[in-house]
Amino acid sequence: MKKRESVAKIMTRNPLCVNLTNEVNDVVELFKTHNIHHIPVVSGDKLIGMISKTDIDRVSYVDAYQADSASTAVFNLLKLEQVMTHQVETVDIEDAIRDAATLLATGTYHALPVLEEGKLVGILTSTDVINYLLEQY
Q: Which of 31, 73, 86 is nearest to 54 (CA)?
């Protein structure tokens, strides 16, 4: 196993992003359409937060078996800025996979935005790290 391999090797480059003009319902549709669970929130090329499927689930007061129209009504009342996570742990594109794995293992999140010179260039998920480890064995 390579001990100092950088996150650049396994991250998703140019991740799908949203900004504060997006509606919560837009984000819900992106999660469904792209089968993803985390989306960086940006202002230009600056990372300002992260929205996750867990954030959406947390504000959804509707039972999963009830009509989608009820969920839509709840989401229409909220702004993305109210639902997203503002303080986001990040990694640098040159950081070691091991260091990122440590952050994911000890944190309460499952994705890390990857920055290069302060700009968002990718996203690294716990699934990316697990798949990398599986390739090693």
A: 31
The pLDDT profile of the chain, 137 residues, written as one tens digit per residue, is: 567 899 999 999 999 999 999 999 999 999 999 999 999 999 988 999 999 999 988 887 554 545 455 455 567 678 999 999 999 999 999 999 999 999 999 988 999 999 999 999 999 999 999 999 999 88
Give burial (CB, 10 Å; 0-12/13-18/19+) of 105. exposed
Whole-model pTM: value is 0.86
Count of other CB atoms within 10 angstroms of residue 92: 17
Q: What is the CATH architecture of 7-136?
A: Roll (3.10)
3-state SS, residue 27: helix
Helix axis angle for 97-106 and 126-136, nearest 10°, is 130
Bridge partners of 39? Answer: 51
